[in-house]
Structure formats: C-alpha cells, structure tokens
Specification:
Blueprint (H helix, E strand, L loop, with lengths): L2 H11 L16 E5 L7 E7 L2 E12 L10 E6 L16 H17 L8 E3 L3 E13 L4 H15 L3 E4 L2 E7 L11 E8 L2 E4 L3 H6 L2 E7 L5 E7 L6 H22 L1
Parallel strand pairs: 4-6
Antiparallel strand pairs: 1-2, 2-3, 3-6, 5-6, 7-8, 9-10, 9-11, 11-12
Length: 257
C-alpha cells in the first residue's frame, strides 16, 4: 500500500471531496453501448470515467452435466491484461480476475435471473451453454460493478443462435432471448478511514481499508455479498454499506432500461 497516497486521499476525504472532485456517493460520468461485438450473441461496452470495459456473451450448444441433465450452464470469466493496467502481467489468472469472475457469476446465479432449465434443448443430450467474458480495456477501478452491470446488459441483449442439425449457426441469430427474471446489479462500497465511497478508482481501491460488494435485484433483495480488504467491518459499517449499495443499485437501473 502507498502510505503517501492514502494520506493524500484521506486529507481530501476529510474535506468531503475525492481526488477527482466527486462527492463520496457520486458515480463517475458513464456511457453505455450495446451490440459492439459482432461475433457475440450479446455485448455491452461501458465507459465510466477512465474505466473502459467490454463484455461479450457467447452461447453455444453442449452436453449437460450428468447430475443436471435438464439444465444449461452459465459461466463468467474476467481477464486482466497488461494493456488495461501496467500492474497486470501475462500468465495464469490473477487473484483479482478470479474474484471478479466469481463475484459477478454468483450475483447472477444466486438471483436466479436465468432459469437454467429453460436452456435445455434435449434432456441429457443438449443444452445451451452461456459464457460471459469480461474484458477491461483500461482498468481504473470498480471492475466488479462495471463488469457486472455490463454483463447483465449484455445478457439482456443476447439472442440465441439458430440451431441447425443440433449445431449452433453463429451467423444467424434468432429473436429468442434468455428470458431474465430479474436484473441483479453489484455495487461495491469501499471504506477509507471513516468514509464510505462508491465507484472507487484504481487508486482508491488500492488504499481502501475494506470493501463490500453487494448484489441486489429490483425490490432491494440481496443476492450475494463479498467482503474484501484487510480491515474488519463492524455491524454498523455493514449496515451503512449495504444501505448505500442498494440505494446506488436502484439509481443504476436507468442504464439498463
């Protein structure tokens, strides 16, 4: 941890502002595009401040797991490449990429946004396999939230490929979507000193004492939570962070609509 940077950020927070001039509960300016990847069944591209992330959804035909013969599969993967931030290196997935993948995946899965039984083509033989790939082009913090938001938008936009003789024809997309039952959105709240921030930048994430990612659906119901950082959180801290996360998620839903 860069102690000088943390002290600098703390001094700004004591005045109620952040290094980029935002309020503690203020999101960076954000733009969203869909359909940006022609080879994907669904895609979304989000720019939020200096953060730039693209998500693609690929849907293919595969064999179901033996213990779930009538259910399709969902898998989320995130890859942090050196082009997105000099901190990352080529090689096996980093801890950050594994955590981002699992937290985004768990939020979608535990919300039951996708009925995996609806992905069954022929019981015991063929199912649709849904893969969500999260790729930051420029990583400036808050990957889980922005990757999760882009992921649910891309899933909402996705259309199944045409099925020809048991094989997916990726050149032809049908009008059939994935029938999402709800829209889970993750929001990460970081604690720096006595302050709670949303949409943290890379620098803010690097000096945070603790963080809590909360995924919720439209009615405010919680789907999943993930604690990070070295410092513990009190019950009061968690209560404040969950309340802020759910409130923020409701504001983000306008981008999905």
């Amino acid at each position: 941890m860069n102690n000088a940077l943390k002290e600098h950020i703390n001094q700004a927070l004591q005045k109620g502002v952040r290094l980029d001039g935002r309020k503690l509960d203020e999101w960076r300016p954000m733009t969203i595009e869909t359909g940006t990847i022609s080879t994907a069944e669904g895609s979304a591209h989000i720019k939020c401040g200096e953060m730039d992330v693209v998500v693609g959804v690929k849907i293919d035909v595969g064999k179901p797991y033996p213990d779930r013969p009538d259910s399709g599969t969902l898998m989320v993967s995130a890859e942090l490449r050196p082009m997105s931030n000099p901190r990352y290196e080529l090689g096996p997935p980093s801890i950050e990429s594994i955590e981002a993948s699992r937290v985004i995946d768990r939020g979608i899965r535990e919300s039951e946004a996708i009925d995996e039984k609806s992905l069954c083509i022929k019981k015991g033989e063929q199912v649709w396999m849904v893969n969500v790939d999260v790729c930051p082009l420029n990583h400036d913090g808050n990957l889980i939230d922005l990757g999760g938001l882009a992921g649910i938008i891309a899933l909402k936009e996705a259309r199944l490929p045409k099925l020809v003789d048991g094989q997916a024809d990726f050149h032809v997309h049908t009008k059939t979507g994935l029938k999402l039952s709800c829209l889970p959105i993750p929001v990460t709240v970081v604690k720096i000193g006595d302050n709670f921030l949303i949409d943290p930048t890379f620098d803010e994430m690097s000096v945070a004492d603790a963080r809590l990612t909360v995924t919720s659906v439209e009615d405010g119901k919680l789907c999943s939570m993930q604690k990070g950082g070295e410092q513990p959180l009190s019950i009061d801290d968690i209560d404040k962070m969950v309340t802020l996360a759910v409130k923020t998620a409701k504001g983000l839903r306008k981008y999905i609509k």
